Amino acid sequence: MWIFTKYGFFSVVCAKDRKGNSDPNLLMVRARERHHLEDLCFQFELKNRIRESKKTDYRYRIIIKKEDWLKVSKALIQDIDYPNFKSEVLSYEQGNTPYQHALHEIWGVMYSLQENKDSLINTHEWIV
Questions:
Q1: Residue 21 has what DSSP assignment?
Q2: 3-class SS at 20?
Q3: In the predicted model, is pLDDT for residue 51 greater than 90?
Q4: Facing residues of 127 across strands?
Q5: Tell me: the pLDDT tens digits for 62-81?
Q6: Residue boundaries of the structural domains of the chain
Q7: Crossing angle, helix 85-92 and helix 98-115, to 10 degrees?
Q8: Residue 77 and residue 58: Cα distance in Å, rounded?
Q9: Cα first-last separation, the chain
Q10: What distances in angstroms separate CA 16 from CA 7, 20, 22, one per listed residue?
């Protein structure tokens, strides 16, 4: 699952146990920028250690119990008190940032999907 919040962008997937099998009780919350996970952990009082690896697709990650992520997800929903997400990110980050720029790029790609599916597919075949 990809999730975009005012605290940052996260990819949430099932974590693996010591044998390399998916552990249905643990999730790995991954981020491209360390401060996104730091903000998330601070905001929701998570004590999870942020792991860093330059050998993985997402450099930063935490492992969290699924039941704890449910609490975070609920709190993220309750935290929505704004009518425009991109404007809220601008306000939260106190100015234009690479994250906000990326959100506008993503918005444009998804708008293209809505408006012209054939054009998007033909110009972005590498996405598959």
A1: -
A2: coil
A3: yes
A4: none
A5: 999 999 999 999 999 999 99
A6: 1-81, 82-128
A7: 170
A8: 24
A9: 17
A10: 25, 5, 4
